[in-house]
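Ops channel
N.P.: pipeline sanity check, posting one input/output pair.
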């Protein structure tokens, strides 16, 4: 009897130890205070990655693997992005996920390609990311889709065609959005009155507000990240400018932190996002409940994009046999669709996915869902 128990214990531990450990590199800013975001330490990103692994545990166990995460912290220094991605590429990691801002993703992509190391960015949206080809994968729709929607909002919802743009010129995402919007608004017989440059780390926008007061415009496009955008809107409203504002996904999806800057300021506008906690699909409701229970806080747009991208990566990993960077890349490149918390996404290889976009009506009363827009679908005015 003891022999049988001993053999059973031996075989049980042998089977358990036979599981293959698969390492995944998480690349983000985990340590330094950002000047443009209220989410400086990668918390929402990493939490969502861990939740995706927990929720997909049956699938992972069935595949006979154990997922191991290793973080690569590049802080807020662009030079560190390249340094850290090279470290990750030299490790045993099967893929890298992260680079949540376009500036970091654009720096990381060439290294991933050179090292033949699959990269998945959940939220970077620069149009140029769709031009790199193999080893670069995206979880977010791109800036072009956002500006197509925002140009329709400006001209059909707000009926405004003379647009002032305020662009952080040291932000790849911001410049890409501004340039794309400038071209798109022309298709709707609109014009850019002026594109006023600024730096994303600036905090005093009194001079820009005074300059804006001298111009003839009827709407303002603020294509910047959360903190910079909020500070700009605050400065312009304090200067008495009551024109509507337009923004992209950098504004966030609920405005909890956005309104810490704009508290007491009256304004109105429209922005776009990937997801909103009031979306009532079963997957969305389950995700919100699970995230809240596990981390004692509500998820944000960073969370949901990271969760969907990690779930996609897990599905690709368990499907790939034998597993290597090259074979995983082939699997990722073959994925044509994915049904996630943010809805259904469709891919052409290495391009930004086509997926639903949410238009938010933004005001001092909060962010409310105005309309869900699918690719190639016009925005109906109110």
């Amino acid at each position: 009897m003891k022999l049988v128990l001993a053999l059973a214990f031996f075989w049980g531990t042998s089977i358990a130890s036979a599981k293959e450990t698969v390492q995944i590199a998480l690349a983000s800013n985990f340590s330094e205070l950002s000047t443009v975001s209220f989410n400086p330490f990668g918390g929402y990103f990493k939490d969502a990655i861990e939740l995706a692994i927990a929720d997909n545990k049956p699938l992972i166990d069935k595949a006979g693997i154990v997922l191991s995460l290793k973080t690569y912290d590049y802080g807020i220094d662009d030079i560190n992005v390249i340094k850290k991605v090279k470290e990750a590429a030299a490790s045993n990691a099967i893929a890298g996920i992260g680079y949540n801002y376009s500036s970091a993703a654009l720096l990381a992509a060439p290294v991933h390609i050179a090292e033949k190391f699959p990269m998945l960015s959940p939220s970077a949206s620069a149009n140029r990311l769709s031009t790199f080809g193999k080893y670069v994968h995206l979880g977010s729709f791109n800036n072009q889709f956002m500006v197509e929607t925002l140009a329709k909002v400006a001209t059909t919802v707000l009926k405004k065609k003379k647009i002032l743009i305020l662009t952080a010129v040291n932000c790849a995402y911001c410049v890409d959005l501004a340039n794309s919007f400038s071209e798109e608004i022309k298709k709707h017989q609109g014009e850019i009155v002026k594109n006023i440059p600024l730096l994303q780390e600036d905090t005093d926008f009194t001079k820009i507000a005074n300059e804006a007061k001298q111009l003839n415009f009827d709407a303002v496009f603020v294509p910047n990240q959360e903190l910079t955008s909020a500070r700009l809107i605050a400065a312009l409203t304090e200067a008495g400018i009551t024109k509507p504002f337009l923004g992209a996904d950098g504004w966030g999806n609920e405005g909890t932190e956005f309104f810490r800057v704009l508290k007491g300021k009256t304004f109105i506008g429209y922005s776009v996002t990937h997801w909103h906690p009031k979306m009532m699909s079963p997957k969305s409701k389950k995700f919100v409940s699970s995230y809240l229970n596990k981390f004692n806080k509500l998820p944000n747009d960073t969370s949901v994009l990271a969760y969907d991208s990690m779930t996609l990566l897990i599905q690709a990993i368990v499907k790939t046999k034998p597993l290597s960077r090259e074979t995983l890349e082939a699997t990722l490149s073959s994925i044509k669709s994915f049904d996630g918390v943010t809805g259904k996404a469709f891919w052409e290889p290495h391009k930004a996915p086509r997926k639903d976009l949410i238009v938010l009506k933004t005001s001092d009363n909060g962010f409310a869902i105005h309309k869900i827009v699918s690719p190639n679908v016009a925005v109906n005015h109110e």
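N.P.: looks fine end to end. The longest helix spans residues 301-319.
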